[in-house]
C-alpha cells in the first residue's frame, strides 16, 4: 500500500462521521431547546396555578359593565370572583355539554351546564352558568322550580370564553346544546343584541337553587401540568441521541482501524 493510500484509509472513517456528527449536533440543539422551552412553561404554569388559587379566594367585586369591556383582559380576569344583580331570561338558556366526574354536590355524570342570560339592573346582559343538570333533566320543564323570577343576586367566578373546536363547527349541536363556552354565540342563537352581552360568563357559586337544580359551584379549576414530564422527555432524548452517536462513531472507528491492519 502506498503512503497516499494509507493516508486516505486513515482519514476515511473520520470523513464518514462528519455528516452524522453535524446532524447529531443540530438535533441535540433542537431537543435541548425544546427541553428549555418546556422548563420555562413549567415555571409559567406553576405561577399561573398559584395566581388563580389566590384569586378565587378573594372577595367578589362588581362584574365589569360595558364601559370596561373594550379594555378588559379576559385571560387576566379569568376566575375573578364577581357579583351581579338582575333578572334571569329563563326562556333563553343554553346548554353546554359536560361530564362531571368529581362533583362537589350530590349529582354527577353525563349532563349539561345551564347558561342563562341575566339582564342586569343597568340593562346589559351577562350569561350565568347556573350549574350542572344530569342529562335526563336537560329539559327546563323538568326543573321549573329551579327557574327563579324577579330580581336575583349572583356571586361566582368570571370566566373567559372558549373557542369551539373545528370538529363541532360553531360549537352547537342541536336543540341549543353546545360544546364550547362562547357567550356571543349563545346570544346570537337566542336573538339577543350582541352589543349588550358581556364578553364573559359567570360561573355561579354553590348557593342552593330551588329544587336542587341546577347544581352550582361546579367550576373546574384544573390546569394540566405535564411540563416536567416533557422536560425529562426532551433532555432524555437529547442524551440518548448522543449515546447513539457515540456507539455509531466507535463502530466506524473500529472498522477503520481494522481496515488499516496489515
Q: What would a concise description of this structure say?
A:
This protein has 262 residues and is α/β, with parallel strands linked by helices. The protein has helices at 3-55, 74-77, 183-190, 227-260, and strands spanning 61-62, 81-88, 94-100, 109-120, 125-134, 151-159, 177-178, 197-204.
What does this 3D model show about the protein?
A five-stranded mixed barrel has the order 2-4-5-8-6. A hairpin with an 8-residue loop joins strand 3 and strand 4 (109-120). The chain folds into two domains: 3-51 and 225-260; 60-212, no CATH class. The chain has four helices and eight strands, in the order αβαββββββαβα. It has helices at residues 3-55, 74-77, 183-190, 227-260; strands at 61-62, 81-88, 94-100, 109-120, 125-134, 151-159, 177-178, 197-204. It has 262 residues and is α/β, with parallel strands linked by helices. The termini are close together.
Amino acid at each position: 500500500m502506498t503512503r497516499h493510500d494509507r493516508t486516505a484509509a486513515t482519514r476515511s472513517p473520520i470523513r464518514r462521521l462528519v455528516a452524522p456528527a453535524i446532524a447529531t449536533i443540530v438535533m441535540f440543539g433542537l431537543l435541548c431547546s425544546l427541553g428549555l422551552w418546556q422548563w420555562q412553561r413549567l415555571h409559567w404554569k406553576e405561577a399561573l396555578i398559584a395566581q388563580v388559587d389566590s384569586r378565587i379566594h378573594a372577595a367578589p367585586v362588581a362584574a365589569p359593565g360595558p364601559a370596561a369591556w373594550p379594555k378588559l383582559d379576559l385571560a387576566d380576569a379569568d376566575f375573578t370572583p364577581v357579583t351581579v344583580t338582575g333578572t334571569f331570561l329563563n326562556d333563553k338558556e343554553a346548554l353546554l355539554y359536560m361530564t362531571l366526574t368529581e362533583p362537589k354536590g350530590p349529582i354527577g355524570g353525563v349532563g349539561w351546564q345551564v347558561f342563562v342570560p341575566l339582564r342586569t339592573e343597568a340593562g346589559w346582559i351577562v350569561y350565568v352558568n347556573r350549574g350542572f343538570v344530569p342529562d335526563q333533566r336537560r329539559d327546563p320543564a323538568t326543573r321549573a322550580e329551579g327557574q327563579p323570577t324577579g330580581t336575583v343576586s349572583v356571586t361566582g367566578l368570571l370566566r373567559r370564553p372558549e373557542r369551539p373546536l373545528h370538529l363541532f363547527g360553531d360549537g352547537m349541536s342541536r336543540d341549543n346544546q353546545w360544546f364550547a363556552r362562547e357567550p356571543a354565540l349563545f346570544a346570537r342563537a337566542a336573538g339577543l343584541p350582541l352589543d349588550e352581552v358581556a364578553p364573559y360568563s359567570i360561573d355561579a357559586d354553590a348557593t342552593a337553587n330551588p329544587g336542587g337544580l341546577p347544581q352550582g359551584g361546579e367550576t373546574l379549576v384544573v390546569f394540566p401540568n405535564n411540563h416536567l414530564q416533557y422536560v425529562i422527555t426532551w433532555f432524555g432524548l437529547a442524551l440518548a441521541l448522543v449515546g447513539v452517536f457515540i456507539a455509531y462513531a466507535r463502530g466506524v472507528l473500529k472498522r477503520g482501524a481494522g481496515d488499516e491492519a496489515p
